Amino acid sequence: MHDLRAIRENPAAFDAGLKKRGLNPQSGEILALDEHRRALQTDLQDLQNRRNAASKEIGSAKKAGDNARAEALMAEVAALKNNLQSLEAEEATEAESLDALLMALPNLPADDVPVGADETANIEQRKVGTPRSFSFAAKEHDALGGVLMDFDAAAKLSGARFVVLKGALARLERALAAFMLDLHTGEFGYQEVVPPLLVRDEALLGTAQLPKFREEQFGTTDGYWLIPTSEVSLTNLVRESILDEDKLPLRLTAWTPCFRREAGAAGRDTRGMIRQHQFSKVELVSITRPEDGPAEHERMTSCAETVLQRLGLPYRVMLLSTGDMGFSARKTYDLEVWLPGQNAYREISSCSWCGEFQARRMGARIRVKDGKGTRFVHTLNGSGLAVGRTLIAILENYQQSDGSIALPDVLKPYMGGVDRIETGR
Predict the structure, then answer these.
(1) Other residues' Cβ atoms within 10 Å of the Cβ of residue 247
(2) What digits encode the pLDDT tens for the residues 118-129?
């Protein structure tokens, strides 16, 4: 959600931010709606004042025995009531139109975000780790999963873009999630949360999955949505709250299933586990003071990177362009893990600083310390990491010539001491 006052004060800067996003100017339409709505509010206040005054005058006229004036005033009050109802309905319609327009517009990018139409304008920040050299042809994960990665069984149950993991691969997914949660809670100070997987409209509106991305969500018939990411549940924990400044930052993490229709991804990654309707993810969410947002973004990205480093997975960090960045983000780093089977880096985490964009939608504020009033918090979110894609990266980077999968040392305690997986391929 955007700050109307800021748009009024500097409409050119607002339109310049939208232009970086590849959008046409919107300040003219926004300010016209805003001006009309404010004029209606002034008219409503004037009519309300006159109705209150006329109501008092009725009593005075009756006391004075001036029945004619009293009747005239009562007729005026009745007419004013009708006018007020009409203006209130018109003002409500204008407010809805203004909110709908503002809700449909993405966050404005930070000044250091590269301007570009798509991922080709992303800028590599760094590469960490050296891709392994294989003495044999590296295979993709779906060729390595064998009988423990069953797409046919999943298709019988649910159709395309689902998988059934069995045996050691099922345990590996659980092990990866446990390792990530232990790292983020034990070393980085995140509080573990088990949040609801079903949320109401207000929660998706707060983090901006609604209204724009309605077609990408799975909804129930009784007003609930399956979460597309636990960012929704975790961030909305501060919805309609006023937080004490000295309690910030809040750092929250959760491992949950996530559900997405992938409506905009038809034909992409239809094989394997890269892009599925159901997947699990360890999410990181931070709630900070505005001045701490950029530094928290770097910290969160570093926390996600540490997972890859401990697992010994080569990766690179990309600063996303304005055309590739998510709707709510002011700035985003993508972590892309090396997948030797694809001979390519693929996204495994996005870490985004959203500024006050989500906080305005949620009504999440800070009580100003030693001062008056409140201000909006800043929200951040990131994958720490996408568990299924991390499993894919383990399979491909640790595959052996005999078809088995070696395991990184940090995972062995979570796997009962087993040091390799036989998938029976």
Answers:
(1) 10
(2) 999 999 999 999
DSSP 371: S
| Residue 261 annotated among the catalytic residues of the structure | no
Is 416 in the same domain as 278? yes
CB 323 within 8 A of CB 21: yes
- Whose tokens are 């969500």? That residue is 217
38 catalytic, yes or no?
Answer: no
User: Cα(352)–Cα(209) distance, rounded to whole angstroms?
Assistant: 15
Q: Which of 51, 161, 260, 361 is catalytic?
A: 260
| Active-site residue flag, 367 | no
Residue 74 pLDDT: 84
Rounded distance, CA 50 to CA 55, Å?
Answer: 8
Q: Measured between alpha carbons, how far is 349 from 305 in angstroms, rounded to an integer?
A: 9
Q: Catalytic one among 21, 171, 261, 275?
A: 275
Are 65 and 158 members of one domain? no
Of the residues 350, 352, 365, 383, which is catalytic?
350
What CATH number is attached to the domain comprising 286?
3.30.930.10
Question: What tens digit of pLDDT does each residue of 163-203 get?
Answer: 999 999 999 999 999 999 999 999 999 999 999 999 999 99
Closest C-alpha to 354, from 321, 379, 332:
379
Rg from Cα positions in the chain: 27
Model confidence at 425, pLDDT cuts 50, 70, 90, reads low
Annotated catalytic residue 389: yes
133 SS3 class: coil
What is the total count of domains within the chain? Answer: 2
Do 185 and 302 belong together in one domain? yes
